[in-house]
Batch of 2 targets.
Target 1
Amino acid sequence: MKGSLLSMATATVSPRYQVLPGPEGLLPPSACAMGVELPQDGEGLVEGVIVSEDKAFKAAARALLTRRNPTLFPGPLVVWGWNKHTEEKASMVLEIAAEIPGVKIIPMPDYRPIYPKIDPEAVINPCHPNLTIWHNKIEACIFVGVHCHFANVTLKMVRAGTNCYTIALCAEAGHEDAMASVPRCGTEKLHKMVEALRQVKKEGLTPWALTADGKRELAAEREQKKKQREAIAASAPQFAHELVAGLDENEE
Amino acid sequence: MSLETLRIAPGFESYMPKEYVDLVERGPYGRDVKVSELGTFKEVLEEHPMCAGCAMTLFIRVALIGLPCPEHTVILGTAGCGRLALSQASIPFIYGNYGDTNGVASGLKRGLEIRFPNQTKDVVVMAGDGGLSDIGFSCVMHSWFRKEKFTTVMLDNEVYGNTGGQESGMTNKGMVLKMAPFGKKFEKMDMIGLAKTAGVAYIARLAPTNPTRIANVIRKAVLIAREVGPTYVQAYTSCNIEYAIPTPKVMDDARAVEKDRYGFMEIISDEAKAYLERIEQEKKSKAKAVAGT
């Protein structure tokens, strides 16, 4: 027993298995099964290695500021006003977003399967998160406020099918299947994420959205969306009047 | 979710998809909506992956309008077609293992009563004929015998439609199906009779021909289950694929079957009747009081 625990600890210090952006192919093993351990409070996890919390925040900040189309995926625990505490967290998540130029916010409002198709620009669904990531060409993202069991599934699917760098800011134990994860993320730790983003920018890193490539891509995207909106407006059906009266009464 | 939490966190209003904003602003939560108001409020189920022309989907859609308190309702289902739509409705849904829906619902209802002593939570099982009368038969019967306070709705398409057309206990005698090529050898199970024997407080049988009736039946069943005891609704919801009913003829079939052997029927206990009259009275006096102020 003692021996096996020791070998697990060695696996995380010098990992045999690295949790890197995919695509890793269909059904990648869970990082946990490959010996990656969860970090304790005050620690973080970067690509399967336990590091200090500050290092994890910094790695996350670098990924968000350097990779294409950084995106925040706030889950139900953030987007719904459950209580005062979650509202505070929600406002801190918006502060994080404010520090990332060119950031997108695409919510995961609940976990219902959405069929026959989702709108990948409006929503991310845990049953097929890869669709949203593919469509928006997202290469770095934060999952925050997503319940653990769905975060686990989602993170594995993203790692399996996309090249997205996943960051899990988790209120509980953290996530091995994310490329960077910090456990016990309350408002205080979310604020540390804001600070890390500010710090990395201060160190002279040019955010992707402000590079020539980033500017070109975002401008092209804006142009394309404008055209789409115009096309939809031109082809939308015209109703004679507002549908306010409802259908005919069909009483027994 | 409840009404207190069904609001968007400040700052996220502009990021939430329109569907969710509509649910908060125009959903059926916290108010009575009628079938006649369809089109003026956001329904809890709109898009779904069911087959074109599926009568089961029509029934589910209208049945969800009949729920008296959707924000405090939990639905249980199991393998089969119905769960494809039910799991997509904006009402908490639990996917039971095949056969145990009424066992899970019993535990859930009791648990919710302990967890939320000041808030009535409605539990509704909505599953197919296979899930309730064949594989889940034991759990269904025992939940009725134990007088568990929740509603069981059978989506009776008279076949295992989701797995290619095997006969179920609710298939009619002699029916030839893809996976029952010699025809079914015994009679359709009398679940209504069994419910009667088990002392179910409210039993209804109907076809999806009258939307208002569907909503009314579901509303009554859920209300009675809150106070009196188990309730059972058996709805004919044809499988147009396995029974080869052309899509435009699905409602014609429903009307014909209703006329032939699936006519509307309600069996209500005296206690349940008295309870419904009481809440109707209370509603009227409340309305009078509001009008008077």
Target 2
Amino acid sequence: MSDSLNSSDKKELWKSLQDYNNDPESLKFKHNEFLEEVTEKFDPEKISGISRRKFLALLSASAALTATACTNYRNKGEIIPYNNRPEEVFPGTANYYASTCNGCGQACGILIKTREGRPIKIDGNPDHPINQGKICAKGQAGILNLYDPERLHNPLYNSKIVSWKKIDDEIIPSLNETLTNGNEIAVVTGLITSPTTKKVLDDFVVKYPNTKIYSHTLLNDEQRRNAWYECYGTYDYPAVKFDEANIILALDADFLGNEGNYIENMRKYAAKREVVGKTDFNRLYVAEGRMSTTGMMADYRISLSPTKQYQFVMTLINELIKNGSAFSLDASARSKVEKFQSSFLNSSEKEKISHLINDLNANRGKAIIYAGDTLPKEVHISVNLLNEVLGNIELYDYSSASKSLVKQSTQQEVSKLVDSMKNGKVGVVVQFDCNPVFSLPEDYGYLSALKKVKTVISLTEAENESSAAGNYTLPINHPFESWGDANVRSGVYSLQQPVISPIFNTRQKESILLTWISGDSNSYQENFYHQYLMNNFNATIYTKKNPLADTKTFWYSALNDGVVLFNELSQRAKFNLNAFSASKEISSVTDYTVHLTESYFIGDGKFSNNGWLQETPHPVSKVTWDNYASISPKLAKQLSVEMNDVVEVKVNGKSLTLPVLVQPGVDHNTINIEFGYGRTVVGNVGKDIGFNAITLMSKNYSSSPFIYENVSIKKVNGTHKLASTQEHHSLDDTFVKDIHRTRKIIQEGTVEKYKKESNFLHEGKEKLFSITNEHQYTGHKWAMAIDLNKCTSCGGCVTACNVENNVPVVGKDQVLNGREMQWMRIDRYYSGTPDEPIISNQPMLCQHCDNAPCENVCPVNATNHSPDGLNQMVYNRCVGTRYCSNNCPYKVRRFNFFNFRDHFADAYYENDLTSLVHNPEVTVRSRGVMEKCTFCVQRIMEARSNAIRDGKELKGTDVVTACQQACPTTAITFGDANDPDSLVSKLREHDLSYHVLEELNVKPNVTYIAKLRNTHHSQEIL
Amino acid sequence: MESMNRNKFFTTLGKSTLLLAIASAIPFNFFSKLSKVSTEKKIKIAIHPSSVKRNNKV
Amino acid sequence: MKRTVLDYALKIRLPLTLFVVVVSFMLTFYISRPERDSVGYAPEQPIKFSHKLHAGQMTIDCQYCHIGVAKERHAIIPSVNICMNCHTVARKDKPEIIKLTRYYETGVPIPWKRIYKVPEYAYFNHSVHVNKQIDCVSCHGNVKEMEVVKEVKPFTMTACLDCHRNPHDNLPYLQKVNIGPENCSACHR
């Protein structure tokens, strides 16, 4: 403000006359900003107490709180019951339905447990005489295939969705067209186990007489059947009474692991491996080129290439007829046998072989020689003769013969089909629930011939290589949505019923054929095959059985039981010696041999998309998510390869590149590869997992389609990490070698030693003492006993536990990091030398220790002990410190490093369908919590609740854990240790009982019964 | 000068923490679900009307 | 002025620690509120079903509708066809019954508002309690007198454990009653 009192300055701007005149009043105004009294009368206290800053803070806080208070915190959601409750559904209680399993060709009886209409668990049907309440790992985990989101939802024509009516309207004319132009209709199927399906196929042939049925399945026992036919005149061979055999010789026969009905075989074998009561053990000799589960159980194991089996059997015949023969041999047979002088008797295995011969001699009529499905027909004929010579035919069970309903097509028939396809003589190909593009050897040329056929129809559950090569892809019902029956053993007719309505727009495969047979697309009904099955049942089974009840009652009772039993005793035929004399001689080779065998858990590729089965560790190598070439350490050194190195295997010009696994104990010239892997058209889980061993197979095989000579193998560049759940240096690393023996994790003995001194295991054991007072358990005390004599490492317990307890699939990458989530694992230990290892299996689960080291280190007390002896785990309290897993000496605690249900690796679990497989009684764990075996506490609580409801006392035998229920040999016993009459308390006090890592004084509640090997010595062979 | 560096470091740290915290709360899952073509209708589970259940528990 | 250790402790660490403690307490306090504070929660149901009429005046037994309560873990809210057992003829001109019939005919299940809820990670078993002769009113209150069902007790774990530890005082009508289980896996499995 210019202070110009000088009136001579001309003012530019003035506000008032006083200003113009420089009135002193206006000057005073210009100086003071405020009027007088404005600042004096200013009283800060009188202004409101809240500053701007404080006001804003309060505003935001109250806004936030209001927002939270706006939700009705008391709102607990809704509870929605049924509108019209189906009579048989009691929400919260499970229903059981009897049915038949479709996992392999053995058709075991199953009970499907459902909750609110959803199947959640599969168990064996106790009424079925063959499997008697047990089911294998494939049957257990096969339930995940029902909830596979990558199943086909709708019928497809050239990958476009069409309606069923349109499909039928196009196909029926195509079929009729072939009748007029004389082309063939080729129906290619897998293994037919159902007599009614066979009848449908027969009716189809009646309607379309130019149809030819071809049956091809990769895993077949054709060698054995053809041999039996030549020897005894029938394709149906009897079952073997393994439970009455004192000596068993298995020749490349994995009868305990993967051949025939191995559930039945395991049960029968274990019947002579009882330690409670008298020890009347059998003795198992195994001569094989690879390491199988049966080989792991052997008392004496001989490494023998599969090409040498023929020589071996002939040598045995030669030696044994010297001491007489129950079957008289003519001159030509004798001369054939006498050529095989005892070169084996002077080999490195001579001691074992002389034991074998002495044993077979001493046990004529009470022993059995059993050859494997993959061996050539000639070996089977020789084995049949050997059993005749020794009188072992007493052990053939003719009341239960294995039937063949539809014979497998021969190599000539399939070649003829392919030629017809190439020449355009085949109008329609129907691929009836099979995958011939994958399972037929490439040199048939099936795929290229298929492309020349105008109409290719594939009936399948999920898209596979064969349906991708065709034009019509028709989705069929999953076995749990299907009707069916099975008659694979004489005297046993089992029924299959659906427990759930078809989830997607699928149809029963037989109903599809029936629609085409009727010729009218409108004739299809939902219960088409149901009616047909009932009619066939009434015509055949009802009339045969002739019961007092009427047809409807009998049908319902048959569905309730699941099986109808008959007396069907087959005729015991006489051995045809000409078959033996005329059979081709197989010369052994000294070069490398490739032996192709069935995968334990993937089958013929059917279960490739099943995460549980892919992740179940291989019984011998403990490898998941892969197959490999299994070679001996000597061969590995020759090729200078180690595990994870890649080799190229060449057979007759075909080659396969795959990783190598060094397997101690296998024959030096045998390369064993499992097929079923390497599928290309499959869901996200199985895509490009493993290596397709079928590329090495050929339609022109010399002796057996599974054994190939003329093999070259060499190392190539590259590595492929094999995800194994166990380390592999146990035999090389001197520090850990035999640590399982020195630390007494595995304690074994021999039968001889046990007979002499039954207390040998407990001799010299020091008594442990505690510094704290021991807790007294009144009431129940849950404990488990595992009999290592019977455990074959089949993996049934592992998969049963996975299904029962909602254990997630983690994928190969996480298994490589050691983060597999299975609560139960089967440890496999080697002792001895890499060429002659002794293998011990031990299922390991949470030991529920009385002095658990995991319990007192949890900072939030999420794991503690229950008054009935269980180590509890409270998931909602766990914060994920992982101190408990650190302290566990058995390392049985699994941590959820990721939220495997959600947002994990393409979010496989995160869909509406797969989450339906979960057991509602068990918590589904999220990220960051520790989990472990709970001794199936949900089953214990349910049994307790049922006992209170029925007014009874809870007995230890009322509770059956999932693993105990699944074990086919009843190796696992569970019960109340405080009950002196229970089996588990008897086993705890048994002479052969021991605890793992007992010296730590953690007092585990899982008792192991030491394995006794039935050798001739008291000392173990180490 | 040092305090300027220190200041900058901690502000960067704080800003990135804030950004990460906000980013983790964004529902990417929800957005990807929206973009997916939802051809599937809701899965209906129904008991098969002709199945016969076992009367006695195992 | 240089900052001493005490300065840091008092000005930074102490407030921070207090803040963390207070916030975690408030968080758990707030999250457990539905169980703790919902005493008196009596929401409006989609159909004005009156227990006072059915269970009280007409003395229909609890287990006629809630069929699972003595058999299994869940008590089972009755499905609509149980209501229609009587209401296909009884008072079928009343507006609420017309609403009920419409639910039944269209096949839509009734979305009842849930009042008694034990969190999902605790597996509560009704039949064990009922078969030990514990009466419904001990936990659910005198439902026979309720027009609209109301929550009368807090459903926190403390409430359950109080009764488990001291059953004699909480259940005076039972002569012989054992102490209920206190171990975790009885409920948390």
